DNA sequence: TATTGTTATACTCTATAACTATA
DNA sequence: TATAGTTATAGAGTATAACAATA
């Protein structure tokens, strides 16, 4: 007899958990929390303001202050006042921060290891289906 | 010109976030944290021991003690010593807990609202693809 | 006055270590 | 002795409200 099929929403839960857990593990192997790794991952070459980071990370600005403070204490990011608008602080990644970020991204093998199992055609199909799931509610 | 395609792993991140955020919102509308809602969601009619809950929720037993304490303070669960092995505590859901749990599940509209957009054929395809992604690493 | 960011504070989640009660 | 659970404690993530500096 066939195995009872796993309901689709249960599969989605499992996917969410697997993806999340892979990121958490990757962050921890580099000595970061998942949230700190997200912040580091969100930095661009020009740096980002605290407000931009709050928006990207979908959290309060006061939270960003704390996350940045911890990363700064570890020497992974630097904070300096913007030249044009001195209210704005720009957060930039340090050379040490780049090394750690590379390590996190390399350790986050979900995309490589799991997505690598799909053929190109399957990827396209998955992409189309995810697009429908992610479309904003009508 | 076509929109530049969204990378598949970015789509996955978005899905993870959307799914997670939907659960978080559902829990909060019922006055619970996401973790508390997960615990409530994991309870069965016969109740579960603290240890079982720790295993299901993938966290330490001391954490379960705190989560249960908060839910118990709100009258949503009850804790009683097991008759056979008095070291074991069985956590059961109260009538009020059932009402709250129903509210959370109803508010968690992800499955209904997002998955409802797919045709049966698309669901089957998605299920197959998720199965490949979720298969344990070879 | 409005905006950017910080500080003070509080709550929750989470884990570790030491402890109690029971087996 | 071993197991189930609790307590004490600590660190991190998160938010709200009050505040400082700058525009």
UniProtKB/TrEMBL annotation, chains A, B:
GO BP annotation list: response to stress
Domain HTH marR-type stretches: 5-135
Record-linked InterPro entries: HTH_MarR-typ, MarR/SlyA-like, WH-like_DNA-bd_sf, WH_DNA-bd_sf
Classification via Pfam families: MarR_2
Gene Ontology MF term list: DNA-binding transcription factor activity
The protein, known as: Transcriptional regulator, MarR family
Native source organism of the sequence: Geodermatophilus nigrescens
